[in-house]
């Protein structure tokens, strides 16, 4: 009888986990549809894994030119190019503005 009870308990746990997974997928799909989440192509991820500058990769992922991102972030093209070439880390304000302009978190640029 104990084996049946354990099997039933395990079945309930699995059903609850499946339900929680289904809820998480629904939440993600809703966030994706609203633009709060994005799907990132493997090419972009591979560039980051290979150590490419995250600002440059993010800008190109968004299809923006250097001029467009600099303008939207309120920084000079020179400052942006220095950040993209790793000549400068940029100050927090600039990085925050770049993140906002790219629609990602500051942590996403780290």
Q: What would a concise description of this structure say?
A:
The protein has 6 helices and no strands. The chain is mainly alpha-helical and 110 residues long. The longest helix is centred in the N-terminal third of the chain and has 33 residues, at 2-34.
Task: Describe it.
By secondary structure, the chain is mostly helical. The chain has 6 helices and no strands. Helix 4 crosses helix 5 (77-84) and helix 4 crosses helix 6. The longest helix is centred in the N-terminal third of the chain and has 33 residues, at 2-34. 16% of the residues are buried. The model has no long low-confidence stretch (mean pLDDT 88).
Helix and strand pattern: HHHHHH
What distance lies between the first and last C-alpha atoms, to the nearest angstrom?
Answer: 55 Å
Q: What is the strand content?
A: under 5%
Quaternary structure annotation: single chain
Helical residue percent band: 55-70%
What coarse outline follows from CA principal-axis ratios?
elongated
Q: State the secondary-structure class.
A: mainly alpha
Average pLDDT, rounded to a whole number, is: 88
Radius of gyration: 21 Å
Q: How many H/I helices?
A: 6
Total beta strands: 0
Uncertain segments: none
* Major beta sheet summary: none
